[in-house]
């Protein structure tokens, strides 16, 4: 099957960065599907495809891939993970059994504090280009992604690569090249920048919100030009039988970010700003590439002010050199501002009270007994009342009946 299209260059703002990508399909560049593995003619095609796919929601990604007759590893993983929303687990062993049955796509990860969380495998951008067998083709090379690295060979020798189930760095097979996953750490002092990764977690009982930012470089293939990337995530989770699992929540977030890298002629800076309210989702996760740069170029945050929250938790805030990114045009609001009084400045007439910004009759719905009248929400003696009442009893031998003295 062959599909002709190109990602047409357009300026698209993602959560944090404007980058050239494609929203429209246009016959120009050839991208093939062979044995369900996509074929890219160049690293740039690969980069554009991944940048566009990673910016889509699961529904949009499904529509795009079905048009190509292709299912990416990323989509398969998300479909399995989101199916957990309707799963009715009754024990931790059931969760572990589910993960075991889907170990190709899911894993239970334990952090330094001992917390266990359910995650998808291969948390990198190439998962949007590789099929469910974790392979793709770039030019005349065949690539296969492993958990801790990438392997490649000439297309005519792909059978040799398919013999390997894991990275084998000591293998002398000259037909297969193995590349270990690499994190390009920033070289500049952290006293002048904010590194390239930060995460903050806020927990409230069995609910928590995780906010993280990450930047750096990665290559789509062995020997390919490195691409700068930036990623920000807000992840609401709920603890189920001791395992943190992503939960659908109404998410609020704000991002002020500046990144720095050497473009060859000097230090280049990119400022990014984004905010949103009331987005119902499992997480807010945006990925983007912004430039092809040298593999040894350190990419760092010059500053950031990022927070995210849900109704289940307080705000999770991460900040560094906030003065570098906060300005009059791109302000950094308080993540937990004091509630605004809706009645501030509202003047109501006598007998009315401001409630949620509106004047409400205090006597609405109040009924008083004979001889009393409602005043400002309270039943008080009616000075103009002439009938009998508790305070104006009837003479002996009579009783008060609806304000009238009546013989017994």
Task: Describe the overall structure.
The structure is a single chain. A seven-stranded mixed beta sheet has the order 1-4-5-8-9-10-11. Strands 6, 7, 12, 13, 14, 15 and 18 form a seven-stranded mixed beta sheet that branches. Residues 1-35 and 182-191 have low confidence and may be disordered. The N and C termini lie far apart (101 Å). The chain has 408 residues and is mainly beta. The protein has helices at 43-53, 58-68, 73-82, 92-101, 158-161, and strands at residues 2-7, 10-13, 18-21, 25-34, 37-40, 106-110, 116-120, 135-138, 141-146, 149-154, 176-180, 197-204, 207-218, 226-240, 243-246, 249-262, 267-281, 284-293, 299-310, 313-320, 352-355, 358-361, 372-375, 378-381, 398-401, 404-407. The protein is elongated, with a radius of gyration of 32 Å. A hairpin with a 2-residue loop joins β14 and β15. Helix content is 11%, strand content 44%. The chain has two domains: 2-324, no CATH class; 352-407, no CATH class. It is built from five helices and 26 strands.
């Amino acid at each position: 099957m062959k599909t002709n299209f190109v990602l047409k260059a357009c300026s698209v703002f993602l959560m944090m960065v404007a980058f050239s990508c494609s929203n429209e399909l246009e016959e120009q560049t050839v991208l093939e599907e062979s044995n369900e593995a996509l074929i890219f003619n160049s690293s740039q095609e690969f980069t554009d495809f991944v940048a566009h796919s990673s910016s889509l929601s699961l529904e949009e990604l499904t529509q795009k891939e079905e048009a190509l007759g292709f299912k990416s590893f990323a989509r398969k993983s998300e479909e399995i993970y989101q199916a957990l929303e309707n799963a009715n687990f009754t024990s931790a062993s059931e969760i572990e059994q589910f993960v075991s049955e889907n170990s190709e796509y899911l894993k239970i990860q334990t952090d330094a504090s001992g917390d266990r969380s359910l995650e998808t495998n291969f948390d990198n951008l190439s998962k949007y280009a590789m099929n469910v067998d974790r392979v793709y083709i770039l030019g005349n090379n065949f690539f296969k992604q492993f958990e801790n690295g990438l392997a490649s060979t000439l297309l005519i020798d792909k059978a040799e690569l398919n013999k390997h189930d894991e990275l084998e760095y000591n293998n002398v097979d000259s037909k297969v090249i193995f590349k270990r996953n690499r994190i390009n750490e920033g070289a500049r002092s952290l006293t002048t920048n904010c590194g390239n990764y930060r995460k903050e977690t806020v927990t409230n009982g069995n609910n928590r919100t995780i906010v993280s930012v990450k930047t750096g470089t990665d290559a789509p293939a062995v020997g390919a030009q490195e691409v700068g990337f930036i990623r920000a995530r807000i992840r609401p989770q709920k603890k189920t039988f001791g395992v943190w699992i992503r939960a659908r929540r109404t998410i609020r977030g704000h991002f002020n970010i500046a990144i720095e890298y050497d473009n060859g002629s000097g230090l280049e800076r990119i400022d990014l700003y984004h905010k949103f309210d009331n987005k119902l989702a499992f997480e807010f996760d945006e990925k983007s590439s912004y430039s092809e740069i040298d593999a040894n170029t350190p990419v760092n945050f010059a500053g950031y002010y990022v927070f995210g929250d849900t109704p289940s938790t307080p705000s999770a805030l991460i900040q560094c050199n906030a003065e570098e990114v906060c300005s009059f045009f791109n302000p950094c609001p308080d993540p937990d501002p004091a509630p605004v009084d809706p009645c501030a400045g509202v003047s109501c007439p006598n007998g009315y009270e401001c409630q949620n910004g509106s004047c409400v009759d205090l006597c609405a719905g109040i009924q008083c007994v004979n001889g009393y009248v409602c005043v400002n929400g309270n039943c008080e003696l009616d000075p103009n009342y002439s009938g009998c009442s508790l305070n104006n009893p009837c003479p002996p031998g009579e009783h008060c009946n609806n304000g009238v003295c009546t013989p017994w």
